[in-house]
Structures are given as structure tokens and as C-alpha cells.
Amino acid sequence: MSSTREEKAARIRHFLATEGDAVAEGTRGFNAGRYESVQNLDEYEELKDRARAIKEDAIERLPELVEQLRESVEANGGHLYVADDADDANRYIRDVAENREAETLVKSKSMTTEELEVNDELQGAGIDVVETDLGEWVLQLADEAPSHIVAPAIHKSREGIAELFEATFNPEESLETAEELTMFAREKLGERIAEADVGMTGANFIAADSGTLMLVTSEGNARKSVVVPDTHVAVAGVEKIVPSVTDFQPFAELIGRSGTGQDITSYISLFTPPTDSPTVDFEMPDTPMADGEVDREFHLVLVDNGRMAMREDEQLKETLYCIRCSACANSCGNFQSVGGHVFGGETYSGGIATGWEAGIEGLDTAAEFNDLCTGCSRCVNACPVKIDIPWINTVVRDRINRGESGKLDFLVEGLTPDAEPGGLDLGKRFFGNFSTIAKLGSATAPVSNWVAGTRPARRLLAKTVGIDPRRELPQFRRQTFRAWFEARGGSKVPAARARREAVVYPDLYTNHVHVERGKAAVNTLEALGVHVVVPDAPSSGRAPLSQGMVSTAERHAHDVYAALAEHIDADRDVVVVEPSDLAMFRREYEKFLAPKSFERLDMHSYEVMEYVYGLLYAGAESTLLTGADTPGYDESDTGVAYHSHCQQRTLGLESYTVAVLEDLGYDVVTSETECCGMAGSFGYKSEYYELSMDVGEPIREQFEAGDVAERTVVASGTSCLEQLDALLSRPTQHPVELVALR
Amino acid sequence: MSAGTLSTFEQSLRRLDVDSTRTTPEAFEETLASVTLDPVVGAPLPFDGSSLPDWIRTRPTPRELREAKTGVTAAELAVADYGSVVIRATPDATEQVSLFPDVHVAVVRAEDVVAGMPEAFERLAEWTAAGDSAVVATGPSATADMGALVKGAHGPKAVHVVVLE
């Protein structure tokens, strides 16, 4: 392993060991809560569409909304300041605090103030800054950074917090339970809020029409921080503005569900500052609050800090729709294992952090963790504003590959078959050009497998491209899927007598490595009366795309479409075995192909079990397949443990496989894990091997538990099969192999 | 508001482990006595024909606020789907009374319960347009930051809703 890879692996190992368990428990709990909560919301999809439309419109009209908001805030008696950058914002906030002669400033949770590092600025001016969100307070005492954008101390265990409180306060009675810790913190912080001169909050949304801030909280500390002192400073990214208070509604219904899995958080505050509530002066304890003179001061600091430039960047712009709910972190296998101290930048963490950090801090910061997004797409449906988070990660990866200088190394450039610049990491280039390697591998198999498997070769692979020696390498097959199909004389079902005609797309892995599942797909379709064609079509571009090689992937998209268009015109359906390739056709190709071309391929392509489901639904006889009822089939062997593929689930296609298997009499248990952790090339890389295995661990636990341990394991994706082979001691196969006639 | 909306509201409250009591103007005082713990502070109700009994201290001082076990306020709006009560900030310290004591008793008129958030935000937009602030409060304050869910973080540990018919 190279030294940077070694360092990265060591860092990940450290956080897996120290913070992984707490983060996993918290995020998986939030994620499960999200599924349950959105399932009970009939209008979930409509609300997401509305939320998205509101954000698109607001970002489009942002300069105009800023001016409208300024008028509203000033009409209410407050002040609005647009800060160009962090220094500018910090200077303004410090001036406000100093003008109020503030000694103590209490804060409620705000990621934007973390971005500014305003605490340092204020403390430098001699102001005592107190975080009042319990999680943030714990981190302030421990001098640590948030590891999650909603639950900042998610990496801390209850025991760890108890130790911290013991060490810091040496309380009279020892603190143990969460209840005791919470009550202790409430009391300590209550004293600090009582003496506060200034309250600082963030804002989740701001209405331009009335100057109202919407704050989404649960503890009540933001309410206290606003109502007790006479001065309120709210700090928010400029992208938080929406046109009106009625626009808050879809977000109020979505944000808690998407984040922590609560239908709604305890408090949704709508502050239209300065508020009518009297201040609470604990130094005049016997004067009724309502008798006090209300002389409140309000400042809204809108932070640009790169956001207006992101608005002009066609690819990063979508990041500004983010409502910071944390769904993309909680639904992410890698994040669940390591948390935001690994999968995060200066301030933000999780899938969308790549967009934020690239826009605010720059590509160097984004580059430190961007690899952690494997493009599994499990965050895509979870995002309440429908941001294509994997795409943002891919685009930023591409920019990182190209380097900010944009200089090209023409020598390397000429030697590799991709369309990428010379600065590209050798490992990325290796995995991105896997189609070339696979072709070569098949052509020279089995020698290529023997050579690749030898120790000197493994050492070389580890050293040059970073393949972990603990991984089994894919075994290239001498006879490719296409060669097999031609050798058998094409389809056994003549077109004239066929129910349908279909192309079985010879994806890279089916064609060169998992040839058996291609054969099973052909046999299954033919058994159901389909005339099959296996054309010479190029690989989908998934491999280069996953390495951030966008222009190479785009070239593949055009070539694949060219190879398949005429088949579609001939009324042939396109059947895809590898889910990650189908996901290219149905999702990413939208970025590459002309709209009509994308739509045509999207409309006519099917995942293989989805297609089988359709054939059975249309009347094909299921008795023509191998089911649990098939004579001679061992009845004790009808149990199946099925792991769908991450991208297949995102496309909503898991259910077809389950339905077909159940229709054939199998008893199916499905995995509860978002992603197996292999994610294409990710788990092969030595710096990520241990993380990848940790992400897969819950599947191993589930599939080796009591009543599942004896079940036949099936999985849809190539990398899932490789990962399951590494995790389990029993054999694995694609579901189509199970149902194909034997 | 239909009878269905009110029963949906009560079901949502049960889901949140929030107790609720239906009462009438005649039985109102008795109901309040049964759901409050002394000392009690309150904010005057903005409802015609109903007001808080004399034994509830309105216009509290900071000391009384700090020492109170129960705070009684109006909730001028409630959301059936979520079991939320909406408390408007007033110069009478309604926000504080609903926030500082361990128990918050929210008085809701049956006719102020709306079905869902779209209806609630229509109303809230009118309030905020007039410069008002409000909080949509759903259950007690809570935190999971100390390693497990705890009810009662900085705000009330329990909420009791009194529905005035």
C-alpha cells in the first residue's frame, strides 16, 4: 500500500473503532424512522415535488428575494446584513455583540455559524459563547467538531458524555442515565441562558414576504435563546430564503421525517422578529415580565461565502436546494460506518457535503472525502428536495481529477483509452477503464487469472492501482457471454413464433466474469417464449463514471445508444442483468443523451427480473421456470435470502424479483441493508477495504442469523455477489440463475 | 371543524403520549384544577367568554416563572394530523409560560382544530403578515443527544391539552 493509502486506511480504521458503533446506531435508527414516517404520509411524493419547485424558484429569483426580505425585516424594525464571506459575517456579528456590551452570548444549533467559526471570533473579543443545544454543548466542552449536521454529537456514547461531565464539573451525584445527563445539562444551561445578553440562532427557512424565520428544533433552547435576552442575531445562508410563509408548509412536513424520522419535531418556531414576547430579566426577579419595556433588537445576517457563485454553477447550483435534513447521511452505508469525521469536510458531512464544501471551501477540501460517495444512490429517493447527490459527487470528482490548474499530461493521455486528463489517479484510471481490462482478461483467460492471482502480480496491483490483497479478483472467462450465445447458434426461439423479442444487454461483468447469469437470463426468457438477441454493444460507462471520468462515461452513453437504437426501433425490449448498468440507462444517461434518446432507452429497458415479472403478468406460464413446486425440487430448499442492489432499489425494482420468486413458491427474506459496501470498485481499494467490509457486516449478521442461515443466497448486482462471497461461506447466485430451467 | 377532525386530533395526541381532556366552559375551572400542579402560572386567554380562574397567576415575574410547575396558555390553533398546538407569542409572556415550567397545559377551542398543515399554514401566514410570532408545538420538548430519547430537554417534560367545546 502506498503511504497515502496507508494513512487513509489507518484514519478510517481509527474512526471505525472509536466512533463507528455510536454513529451506526444513531444513523440507522434515524434511517429506519424515516422509512416508517414517510410511509404514513400519503402526500409524500407531492410534498417533495412542491418542496423542490419552491427551492428551484427561490434560488432562481434569489437576488430579488433578498431585496424583498430586506424591506420586510426593516419594516418590522430589524436589520438585515448580507455578508460576503465568513470574515465579513464575523465582523458584523462581533460589532453587534460589542455594541450591546454583551458578556454572554447563547447560541442554538446552527451549522452556518460552524462554517463561519464565529465562536472563535467572539471569544477573541472576550465574549463568553455558550452552545445551548445539548449535543453542541457536549462538543464545546469536549472541544470536538460535529460529526453529523443534525445530531452533532452522534459519535459520542452516553458513557463518553458521562465521563466528560464528571471530568468537567465533578458533580456531587454521579451522572449515569440519559435522563440524569439531560437534566444536569438543562440546569447548567438554564443558568447561562438566564444571564445571556445576546441570543444567536440559525434559520431553517426565511420568508421574504414577512421576514419570518422558521426554526426546526426539539429541545426548546432556541426558543429560550430568542425570548430571554433583548438582542437576537440570526445567521443563515442566503439560500434559506423562500417567497412566503405558506411555502414553509411542505418543509415543515418533510424535514423531521427525512432527518431523524420523526413526523415532526417538537417545535417549529415561526419568529417574526422583533417578537412581541417580553424579555426575561432574571436580575429583576419580582417585576412582572409583561411590565418591562420591550426594547428588542434583531439582526439577520445572510451569509454568501461562495453561495452566489454556486448559483451560477450549473452543476453545484442544486446543492443550494439542500435543507440540511441529514437524510443523505443517514441513508448512506459508508456514513453509517464512519460518520462525519471521515465522511465530511470543514463543516458539512454526508453525501451533499461534497457540494457544500466544494462551493464554500474549494475542491481541495471536497477531495479529502469525496471518494466516500460510492454512487450507490440510496440517498436519491431519501432527499426531500430531490437533489441528485451522486451526480454532484461525480461532477466534483471529475473536477478533482482534472485538477484546478487544468494542465494535461500528454504522454499518459496518449496511452489510455479514456477521454480524461493526465492528472488522474492511476487507481481511478484502472477501474475507470475496466472494460479494456476485462476484454484483455477474457482474451487471455485462464492465464490472465493465474497471472493476476500470483503474489508478485498482487503486489504490483496493490502498489500501482491500490487493489487490496485481501480481495479475491474477478475471474475472467475465456468464453464470453456473447461468444457462448453465438456458438449455440443464436436464439432457440425463432422470431416468427416469439411472444416478444428482446435484447439481453451484454454488460461488462455478465459478458466477461459472471457469464452464467447471462446464460440463465437467455434460457429464462426463451423458456417464456422470447426471441433473444445479444448484440455487440459497448459497456455502459458505469465504471468510468464511478471514478469521476464524466467525459469517458458520456462517450460510452452515445456508443451504447447507437448500438441499441435500431433494436428498439425493431420493437425489441432491452433487458439488463446488471442493475448498475440499468441505472445508467434510466438515470445518468439523462445527463448525456438527447432528451428523446434518453426517454426511448429508458422506456424500453428492463431489469431482467422485472421483465420476467412482466412476461408472467402478461400470461406466460410460470411452470416453465424452476420454482419451489417444480417436480424434483428439494422442498427443504425453498428458502431464499435476497440482497437487492442499491441502485436497483432506488429505481424501485427490488419488488419484482421478490414477486417472481414468491410466485414460483420460494419463501423470500430480503436484506435490510442499504448497500452491501462493495459498490463497484470501492471495496477493492486498499484504503477502503476495511470500511467496505464493515458496511457489509449487517448483511452478514442478518444472513447468518437463525432462520436465514440455511437459505439460498441470491443477489442482483455483480459487486454485491463479490461482497457476499467475501462475507458468507455459502455460495451465491443471481436470482435469474435460481429460476432458469436447469 | 368536523367531529372527525377533533377525534383525529385526539388520536394524534395519544400517539404522542400527550393527555387530553374535553371540557365545557362550565367545567373548565375544575378541569384545569385536575391537570395542573402548583405553583401554576398562566397567560390570559384571548377567548371570548372563557378566562383563566383567579388561582392561576397571570402576569408572572421571572421568579414565578422559574418556580412554576405548570404553565397554562391558549393555543389559538391546533393541527389534527400531527397533534400539534400552535401558540402565539404575546406581550403577556405566552411563549415563556408555555416553555419554562415542567408541564404545559394548552387550552384549545374545538373550533380551532384544523385538519392538516396546509390549513394551519394558511392561518399562520395571516398571523405572521401582521408581525406575529408563533410556535407549532408537538408533544413535550425532547432530546436524544445524551444517548437515549429523553422527554423534557430545555422545555416542558409533559404537555396536557384541554379542548374547550
Break the fold down into its secondary structure elements and pairings.
The complex is a heterodimer of chains A (742) and B (165).
Chain A: H1 3-18, H2 20-39, H3 44-60, H4 62-76, E1 79-83, H5 86-99, E2 104-107, H6 111-116, H7 118-124, E3 128-131, H8 134-142, H9 158-169, H10 178-194, E4 198-201, E5 205-207, E6 213-217, H11 221-227, E7 231-237, E8 241-242, H12 248-259, E9 267-271, E10 297-303, H13 307-311, H14 327-330, H15 333-338, H16 353-360, H17 363-367, H18 389-402, H19 410-415, H20 426-432, H21 434-443, H22 447-453, H23 455-464, H24 481-487, E11 500-505, H25 508-512, H26 515-527, E12 530-533, H27 542-546, H28 550-569, E13 573-576, H29 579-592, H30 595-604, E14 605-607, H31 608-617, E15 639-643, H32 646-650, H33 654-663, E16 667-670, H34 689-704, E17 712-715, H35 718-727, E18 732-733, H36 735-739
Parallel strand pairs in A: 1-10, 2-3, 2-4, 4-7, 5-8, 7-10, 11-12, 11-13, 13-14, 15-16, 15-17, 17-18
Antiparallel strand pairs in A: 5-6, 6-9
Chain B: H1 3-15, E1 19-23, H2 28-35, E2 40-42, E3 57-58, H3 62-67, E4 70-74, E5 77-79, E6 84-88, H4 94-99, E7 103-109, E8 113-114, H5 117-129, E9 134-137, E10 142-143, E11 150-151, E12 158-164
